[in-house]
Amino acid sequence: MAFVIFVLQLVLYILLFPMYLLNFLGLWNWICKQWFPIFLSRFTVKYNQQMASKKRELFSNLQEFAGPSGKLSLLELGCGTGANFKFYPPDCRVTCIDPNPNFEKYLIKSIAENRHLQFERFVVSAGENMRQVADGSMDVVVCTLVLCSVKSPEQILREVRRVLRPGGAFYFMEHVAAEHSTWNYFWQQVLDPAWHLVFDGCSLTRESWKTLERAGFSKLRLQHVQAPLSWVLVRPHIYGFAVK
Ligand SMILES: C[S@@+](CC[C@H](N)C(=O)[O-])C[C@H]1O[C@@H](n2cnc3c(N)ncnc32)[C@H](O)[C@@H]1O
């Protein structure tokens, strides 16, 4: 099976040679950072329609983590276009972080559409080093469809635990690797290198639940589901929350 996967990947390398060449010349990253926000702004509309009930369920108890003032301090890690804003409770204080500055114009639009929130700031940085966010300053950190793309999920979760106050919560919703015995996992493996290049570093085969289980949270509520999405490759999902 490994040989068949290798041959199919080789075919894809040949078909996508121009992209690999641009990558080799150091130009692809710039193109990707421009096109990915445009793609995501469209994908998000569809994703939110298909996942609306799961997102509503996931975020239904956010307010329980608010501090004594009743206002929730929330960090959206890998915020993208601000796809989750409409699911947050009124007066929630939202800080956003993302390494791609080209999301800013989409964020501004999402902020304008979600007047019930109190927007704090947009920090352009990778989540592996969030030095602009103080220790223990957040009630909640939210991360959706991000652990698949980051360089080090382990370091991200260390940073999440640092910025969360004691008793604060980390909310996640991620696409993950399918069960190894399935055709879906076979195709995820075949397409993974090309997918990674086209979709700005995203991997189809991450087993992010294992990283979450090892991250040292005091409580972890995690569900595996087949998400009701049109794209079969990203149907296997995990979602839930972890408490520091
Ligand atoms: C698939 S998008 C998801 C965006 C948004 N969270 C959503 O649910 O629509 C992945 C996001 O992760 C961001 N990202 C990639 N690497 C990252 C890193 N190391 N730290 C934080 N965010 C990262 C990307 O720029 C992009 O905005």
What this model shows, in words?
The structure is a single chain. It contains 7 helices and 7 strands. It has a single domain (33-243), classed as 3-Layer(aba) Sandwich (Rossmann fold). The termini are far apart. The chain has a 7-stranded mixed beta sheet. β4 (138-144), α5 and β5 form a beta-alpha-beta unit. 34% of the residues are buried. By secondary structure, it is α/β, with parallel strands linked by helices. The protein has helices at residues 2-15, 17-24, 28-58, 104-113, 153-163, 183-198, 208-214, and strands at residues 73-77, 93-98, 118-124, 138-144, 164-175, 219-226, 236-243. The chain is globular, with a radius of gyration of 18 Å. The structure holds S-adenosylmethionine. S-adenosylmethionine binds next to α3.
Kindly summarize this structure in a few lines.
This protein is of the alpha/beta class and 244 residues long.
